[in-house]
Design brief:
Blueprint: H1 11-16, H2 20-43, E1 45-47, E2 54-56, H3 63-79, H4 89-103, H5 105-115, E3 130-134, E4 141-143, E5 148-152, H6 155-159, H7 162-177, H8 180-200, H9 205-241, H10 248-260, H11 275-296
Helix pairs in contact: 2-8, 4-7, 5-9, 7-9, 7-10, 8-9, 9-11, 10-11
The structure holds zinc ion.
Amino acid sequence: MRNDPFGRGDGQQVRRRGGGLFGNIRWLVLLGFLAYGGCYYLSNRTQDPYTGETVLIDSSIGPEQERALGLQAYKEILSQERPLPKSDPTAQQITEIARRLIAKVDVVTAELAAEHGMAAPEHWRQFEWDVNVIPSEQANAFCLPGGKMAVYTGLVPVARSADAMAVVMGHEIAHALLRHGAQRMSQQKLAQIGQMAGAASGMDPQQQQMVMAAMGYGYLLPYARSHETQADEVGLMLAAAACYDPNEAIGLWQRMSESSGGEAPPEFSSTHPNPGTRIQTLQGLMPKAMEYRQKFCRQ
Ligand SMILES: [Zn+2]
């Protein structure tokens, strides 16, 4: 039997199937959700000035809201940790790297936006930058929306040099500049619309789970990986502009994948690109990074 979502033409036949009318309503509900999802996607698409790529950012998530969420998360994290005092030599070194990177956000933002023929974004000017060093065995770091950063001391022996540390911190700062937090929230909203559509269409829970898993692998995970690649590029340009050696990125990501030994810390987990591919991409970016270094590094 033909399964016509609108029940046109052979409506009688569908209805005779038993529960057919209900089936038609479900199809309509499903179509409604799909149309909503489509509208949501189309009306919240925007071009990112740093990469020129089309991204999804819910226009109702403003940079102020994102900053407020970042600040709240930062307070919560710090309240559970004991950051090194600002006078600690390691904390001072990390603060100095952060200071040099932040000083170049302006020129790197302008240069990348110009490369894509776009106006330079200004949202980062409201950031209230801060960095804390957290004693921990984790080789990890983060920068939240709004510019609040943390470096875990476990990263120091893996980075080995200020240059490599600058590459990691540049990568983290790039996530905040690129508004990846807002993008992730927007994707989750789209995934929720999909989930509601699945439930409304009468899929059984197992089918729904399969669809969600497919969406995760086919859409959300590649998206997360593309965020990592974007952060690698923007971060590398920041590090180079701040007079650090971008070539250190290669050895760094090799050590990072070795040190994680398959058990990667949260930020550097499965969402991060395959180490081989990542190193290849970074090598391809090296000429551009060296140009940035030549152009913007003034010591
Ligand atoms: Zn990352």
